[in-house]
Design brief:
Distance between the termini: 11 Å
Radius of gyration: 17 Å
Low-confidence stretches: none
Number of helices: 9
Structural class: alpha/beta
Largest sheet: 5 strands, parallel
Helix content: 40-55%
């Protein structure tokens, strides 16, 4: 069993073959997916998919790109979904200073709100961090007791210690397979096994063998294989470990 800890299979690029991509995932051993919301509308889609597709589990959140839309009404709806028993995590939220589609202050306010909600609900927080390492750490440190995952971790081993000290899991995507990303592979070798997760972030960031194409959950196997090779273990052993980690963090059924 492989668990894709971060997928966006509600995207319209999957509308014509969503059942087929789920079948391909299962054939590849990817039998569980965390379907991650990034807005009110997409969070609702996550719940719709989870009701129809076995092995999928929804989250609700507002992505930093959409932080300017994080109105009181939007937050009330995100909170309503996060409070439901079906919801396994708060987010995706965080900071993105590379794109800056929303002002930094709006991103920070949105991130802090999600952190407070995750603490109040005792649910894991899914954190997006791009070119915002220092501010991301500052917000996480402001909210002691948080648990969660640094999704699509793209930094190196040098930036890992504070996230690990805060108790966060670290999830790697297809980025770890790109030839020039040795610093990211060094991080994948350094994360303690009990904190390691794998993901696709599909439809984005396909592994190197499919780079530039649409990503899908079946390709989580490629990510897992590369990390297993880097760590000197088998795909099967790392699949068991990362799936056990996902079960524990997100409260998934065995």
């Amino acid at each position: 069993m492989i668990t894709d800890s971060h997928a966006h299979i509600y995207y319209d690029s999957f509308d014509s073959d969503r059942d087929a991509i789920v079948a391909r995932a299962h054939a590849s051993g990817v039998t569980r997916m965390i379907v991650v919301g990034t807005s009110v509308a997409s969070s609702r889609q996550c719940f719709d998919i989870a009701q129809r597709v076995p092995g999928t589990f929804p989250t609700a959140g507002m992505h930093p790109h959409d932080a300017s839309d994080s109105t009181p009404a939007a937050r009330a709806e995100i909170e309503r979904m996060c409070r439901s028993a079906e919801c396994v995590a708060v987010g995706e939220t965080g900071l993105d200073y590379f794109k800056n589609y929303s002002p930094k202050e709006a991103q920070l306010d949105n991130f802090r709100w999600h952190a407070r909600l995750a603490l109040a609900l005792d649910k894991p927080l899914i954190v997006h961090c791009r070119d915002a390492h220092d501010d991301t750490l500052a917000v996480l440190r402001e909210h002691g007791g948080l648990r969660g995952v640094m999704h699509c971790y793209t930094y190196g081993a040098a930036e890992l210690p504070p996230y690990l000290e805060l108790g966060f899991h670290i999830s790697f995507s297809g980025v770890v397979t790109y030839p020039k990303n040795e610093h990211n592979r060094a991080a994948a070798r350094a994360v303690p096994e009990e904190r390691l997760l794998v993901e696709t972030d599909c439809p984005f960031l396909a592994p190197h063998s499919r780079r530039g194409q649409r990503n899908e959950p079946a390709l989580c196997r490629d990510v897992l294989q590369r990390i297993a090779d880097e760590r000197g273990t088998s795909l099967e052993a790392l699949a068991r470990a990362t799936s056990a980690n996902a079960t524990r963090l997100f409260g998934l059924p065995e």
